[in-house]
Write a structure and sequence with these properties.
By secondary structure, the chain is α/β, with parallel strands linked by helices. Helices cover about 45% and strands about 20% of the residues. It is built from 7 helices and 5 strands. A hairpin with a 2-residue loop joins strand 4 and strand 5.
Length: about 180
């Protein structure tokens, strides 16, 4: 029975031991000599904080930027005004531009971004509280993942952080 369960959830298991996610990512990044930078909006630096828990991450983690405002997204990581005007700060298009922008401005192989509505206010019918987009740029390839998180502000931020890191882990194992 345990083997059948393991087969069903295997892609979602990042460790059978008591190793944490940031240690797995840190080892993958350093072993593969891939550099990373982060651009965070709704997670407010939580991803960067998790990454720096790994001893030796300084050899591959170049920087983390909290680009909370539209101005910061445009000025710091080159998200276009047109994208923000047409799709909004919370969109797959903005998440993609954020990930690519931080990678290019930091000269890293990988850019990881988050943009979303953590709440408690700010949501609409089209873009509810808990909506988060995660952008991942790896050596010219861009992926965006959409999340609908539950809970209060801290829960949304925590779920987005863990999901972003897990997406990174999965992609690092492929590349």
């Amino acid at each position: 029975m345990e083997n059948k369960i393991h087969q069903k959830v295997e892609d979602d298991i990042y460790s059978k031991d008591s190793v944490n996610l940031e240690d797995i990512i840190g080892k993958l990044l350093t072993d593969k000599k891939l550099t990373i930078s982060t651009a965070e909006s709704c997670t407010g630096g939580l991803i960067a904080a998790k990454l720096v828990n790994y001893p030796g991450i300084s050899s591959v983690f170049m920087e983390g930027a909290v680009t909370y405002s539209n101005e910061a997204k445009m000025n710091r990581i080159n998200v276009s005004k047109e994208t923000l005007d047409k799709f909004g700060a919370v969109s797959k298009e903005t998440a993609a531009e954020m990930a690519e922008g931080i990678a290019k401005t930091s000269d890293t192989n990988i850019g990881l971004s988050t943009t979303g509505i953590a709440g408690p206010g700010g949501g609409t019918k089209e873009k509810p509280v808990g909506l988060v987009y995660i952008g991942l740029y790896i050596n010219g390839e861009i992926k965006v993942k959409k999340l609908l998180c539950d809970g209060d502000r801290q829960m949304v931020r925590t779920q987005a952080t863990i999901t972003a890191l897990d997406l990174l882990r999965i992609e690092l194992q492929i590349h």
